[in-house]
Amino acid sequence: MRYFARRLAHAVLLLLGISVFSFALLQLAPGDFFSSLQLNPQISSRTVEALRSQYGLDKPLPVRYGSWLHSVLKGDLGTSFAYNSPVAPLLALRARNTLLLTGTATLLAWLLAIPLGIWSAAHRGEWGDRMGGVMTSTLLTVPDLVLFLALLLLAVRTGWFPTGGMISAEFNDLNFWSKVKDLANHLLLPSLGLALATLPPLVRHIRSAMIEVLDSPFIRAARAHGIAERRVLLRYALPVAANPLISLLGFSIATMLSAGLLVEVILSWPGIGPLLVDAILSKDTYVVVGTVMLSSVFLVAGNLFADMLLFAADPRIRME
Amino acid sequence: MTHRRKLAAALVFLAGFYCLVLFAGFFVPYDFAAQNREMPFAPPSALHFVDAQGKFHARPFIYSAQDASQEATPSDANTQRPYPIHFFVRGSHYKIAGLFTSNVHLFGVDDPGQILLMGSDAYGRDQFSRFLYGGQISMLAGLIAALFSVSLGTIVGGIAGYYGGWIDEILMRGSELFLALPWLYLLFAVRAALPLRISQWQVFLLLVAIMGLIGWARPARLIRGVVLSAKQRNFVTAARGFGASDAYLLRKHVLPQTYGVLLTQMTLLIPQYVLAEVTLTFLGLGVGEPMPSWGALLSSLQQYSVLSSYWWMFLPALLLIPLFLVFYTAADALQELHKSVPL
Amino acid sequence: MIPAHSGPHANPSSNPSQPLLRVTGLCKQFVQRRNFSRQQFSVNAFENVTLQLFRGRTLALVGESGAGKSTLARCIALLERPSEGTIALDGTDLLALDTKGLFPIRRRIQLIFQDPASALNPQLTACETIAEPLAIQNVSTKKERHERALQLMDQVGLGPAAAQKRPFEFSGGQRQRLAIARALALEPDVLVLDESLSALDALNRDLILQLLADLQAVRSLAYLYVSHDLRLVSQFADEVVVMYQGRIVEQKKTRELFAHPAHFHTRELLATVHSVESILRERSA
User: Fold this and answer.
1) How far is A13 from chain B (nearest CA, A)?
2) The dihedral sign for the CA sequence B263, B267, B268, B271
3) Which of B166, B169, B226, B234 to mutate to test the interface with C (most CBs of C within 10 A)?
4) Residues of C in contact with B237 (CB under 8 A)
5) Residue contact C115–B243, C-beta within 8 A
6) Alpha carbon of A66 to those of A16, A24, A60, B65, B189: distances in Å?
7) What pLDDT does B153 receive?
8) Domain parsing of chain C, residue ranges
């Protein structure tokens, strides 16, 4: 329990630091949302000032941060200037979409990586392993941007996949199963792209973890006892190799988030990525800060989750 | 191929590419902002050696570019005028490294012909020229930002590792904070803090500075590790026994141990930062028009019409792949060499 | 041409019967704290150590591994700071000096490590390694330092061809010679040897022992040899100090120690030695 408490306290401190940091950065900007309005001669500066005051932009910094943090903890993330609506529900909706995408992509990535990694480890040095290695390296070399653009190109040229969006125009008219199919159809390309982008390091780590385990004496003993190779791999080696892979899960969340932003923008998936980009372009301060905070929360939560998994899986940590 | 050879080959390639990019003005036929409104989205010029009459020419030539909306019929080929390619031609003026001016270009064709090795974009600008000029922006941004990150990381990691104690504790907690942040989001957030309409150079420098500031954490931790272990080596203790000061020890014994790590970090960070700059500009948050950052070249691909009809606009993306391959090869080779250094 | 002893603070007429280095009541404590708790607990590396080193004589410090010997060696060589006690060199209290005051004194006491490979910077050549202490202490010019380094290499039996080689190109025995040459560069009066022979094979051990003996005879060096190997030490030590659990439990001339061991730990250590009689016979020969 002390372990949890420590990790939790650590996470909270981290988040606090992040909130200060992101808020501070934004305030360094000269000019704000209403500066462009000020350039318009038809709008009097008094109106602009009134608008500023209305949105609370004229108070000193620490006060703004303090009141902002206070509201955040109450669940209020401020107001979006561009959408003229509260940030929290806006973020919540987009966050749901992002989670759907990243969740699917993570599942897909691991589903692909585990068999590939195990197979490569089992056939270490043979041509199969080398081919796998080449493919992984190639995938690693292709920049995410290029990969996602290529997928978009594929969708556009072949028409096999929808080229963007989360649902079709007729979504609401469809029955339940068709709705599910429609969603899955739209989900396929972005999650595949995201999975491919994060696949190479996963495969590498799984492969090396498996190799390390396969070299150990107890595996040799198992083989010597005549246990079938597949059973050796799956029931003996894999559970032991799972340990370092669990912490990998936590780390892969970070890369997933960054890559996820890009895939959402390119393939027009309505997640927090496009929201952030638009908010930056329109200097919608509270949306930007809220988004950065939210993604950091995801990250920290992901790491905490990985820590807990590790705790459950590895008795050595429980001994501390 | 041995690792040494791989590394050498990679470094030669990179040096060559940087040279190409540095002297972009010479290697490309046109200025990156030169527009030709009559030739939007023209496909790449095909090089011919045999003309319509079946005659072979040693000097390659092109036919005048067709507007993509027009259809080329076989009969047109006969009435088109061939433009032979000349080498070392005089064209528009350009600056080398901001100092020297010249107007000699490696190759070109006579007006009004246009040689478009990679086609043209919506404004009729030569993509090939823009690609090499774009390298100046993207590659340079990557290099400077990486240098910045690594230097900052070395200073922080060096201090933390060498002095230990509470300084180490604070600095490492700080680095944890930076590593915990999703870097792309952070980059965006900081970019958001900058006014949108500032001069190109300012954007470039600020972008580079921010990228460098965000990325110091990982190099710092690595350097700290090296410094920690170097500090405890007996030859450092021996030097202290001769009366060496901390500064001397750091300079002569500890820091030289970090060179291997530094180099590897550089080869890994430069492509990352190049990509970061390209991504930012792609999304409209980086260096703006008419600067031909690679991101700007690719940003038109977000339009459906471009993606479906004009395949050559994708070429800059494809050309990035071998470049990154070379960087990663160099990094891999460095890591392997570093491992086998005799102690 | 082997130079006569001529260090900057040496007293040419110093009485060889007076101790050169006097260590009194030396203690070293390590304090550790558990994370986030107030509890502190201290570990004594060694306590109340008193001994003396004389010119031209070898004192051996013997005890089992982990008895605090290495820490003591480092404290005496001024590489670590003890918690209590004094170290006096020719009467000067060294621990009372600040960094600046200590700077010239460092020339007079040098440490030879157990593992020469770790004690030599793999990136420096042999010549640079030996010249380094001279450079740090700002002795003469670069050219003269280079000359001196070559001289020293000659004295320890390394030819001039080895000057540009790097540590990994040498064998273990040669590396230790290199380390000795480096330690001699500043013409110290005291050499502390921290198990310096245990990493060597028997042949090299004998060769280095011979070298050390020659150097001691010519330069009147005082040696402090720290070891766990009583048999080895018996071959060259004049006096032996036995440590047990951080304390000195016995201190005698070598022959007397072997003849009449008083403390039970001494007897334990002796029991690991092959044959006491054969050693006594060697010593009396």
Assistant:
1) 9
2) positive
3) B234
4) 74, 79, 111, 113, 119
5) no
6) 12, 12, 10, 62, 20
7) 92
8) 21-284
Q: The CATH number of the domain where A233 resides is what?
A: 1.10.3720.10
Interface contact flag, B328 A137, Cβ < 8 Å: yes
The pLDDT averaged over each successive group of 10 residues in chain C (285 residues) is 39 65 86 65 83 90 79 90 89 86 90 90 90 88 90 88 88 90 91 88 87 90 89 86 86 85 82 64 68
CA distance C221 to C187: 9
Strand stretches in C20-121, DSSP E: 21-33, 40-53, 58-62, 84-89, 92-93, 109-112
Q: Which two tokens stand for residue A88?
A: 């929290």
Q: What is the pLDDT of residue C109?
A: 92
Cα-based distances in Å from B160 to A18, B15, B35, B174, B244: 22, 34, 53, 11, 20
- Please report whether residue A306 resides in a domain: no
Distances (CA, A) of C65 to C201, C205, C243, C269: 20, 20, 10, 12
Chains that touch C (3 or more CB pairs under 8 A): B
Tokens describing residue B183: 């870097």
What are the start-end ranges of the H helices in C45-157?
Answer: 69-76, 99-105, 116-119, 126-136, 142-155
Amino acid of residue A151:
L
Domain C21-284: assigned CATH number: 3.40.50.300
Name chain C contacts of B256, Cβ cutoff 8 Å: 123
Shortest distance, CA B233 to any CA of chain C (angstroms): 6
Number of separate domains in chain A: 1
pLDDT of residue C179: 92
Spatial contact of B27 and B94, defined as CB atoms under 8 Å apart: no
Distance separating alpha carbons of residues C106 and A134, to the nearest angstrom: 58
Domain that holds residue A236: 92-276
Interface ipTM: 0.81
Cβ of B194 within 8 Å of Cβ of A29? The answer is yes
CB contact under 8 A, B343 and C168: yes
* Single-letter residue type at B59: R
Compute φ and ψ for C7, nearest 5 degrees.
-70, 165
Nearest residue of C to residue B253, measured between CA atoms: C121
First vs last Cα of chain C: how many Å apart? 32
Span B18-71, pLDDT tens digits: 888 888 888 888 888 888 777 788 888 777 777 777 777 777 777 765 544 444
The reply to whether the predicted model has a pTM over 0.95 is no
Tokens 């009729």, residue?
B124
Closest residue in A to B323 (Cα) is: A141
3-class DSSP state for residue A164? coil
B82-84 and C109-112: which strand pairing?
unpaired
The DSSP output letter for B120 is B
Name the neighbours of A, counting chains with at least 3 Cβ pairs within 8 A: B
**C78 to B241: CB separation less than 8 angstroms, yes or no:** yes
